[in-house]
Amino acid sequence: MPCSAQILPEAVSKANAAEDAVEKAVITSEMIAAGGDDLDEVRQAVGATEQAVQEAQKAMGEARIFLNAKQAAARLETQWFQSDPES
């Protein structure tokens, strides 16, 4: 298993991507209020917001999967070292 120095940059990158996607969704959602009485503009803003939210959810899911996999691997390695009488 790679050491934490190898895992950390990718983990930070995935977390930053998720954070950026959430911020984009928030900014996009503000377009709904900015649409005012223009129903077409509001509909476009809602569609763009829904798409941005889906992208944010995907980015968060990818980060969560990555971190959970690395955490599980670390647990297994720790258990292996603890149960290995030669180490």
Describe the protein in words.
The structure is a single chain. By secondary structure, this protein is an all-alpha fold. It has one domain (4-83). Helix content is 87%, strand content 0%. It contains two helices and no strands. The chain has helices spanning 4-34, 39-83. Helix 1 packs antiparallel against helix 2 (39-83). The two termini are 16 Å apart. The model has no long low-confidence stretch (mean pLDDT 89).
Q: Which spans of ≥5 residues are poorly predicted at pLDDT below 50?
A: none
* N-to-C order of helices and strands: HH
Measure the end-to-end span: 16 Å
Determine the strand fraction and express it as a percent band: under 5%
Find the count of extended strands (DSSP E, 2+ residues): 0
Number of helices: 2
Biggest pleated-sheet summary: none
Summing up helix and strand content along with how strands pair, one would put the structural category as mainly alpha
Radius of gyration based on Cα positions: 20 Å
Average predicted local confidence, pLDDT: 89
Helix content: over 70%
Protein name: Alkylated DNA repair protein alkB-like 8
Salient structural properties:
87 residues, 2 helices, 87% helix
Summarize the structure.
This is Alkylated DNA repair protein alkB-like 8. With 87 residues, the chain is mostly helical. It has helices spanning 4-34, 39-83.
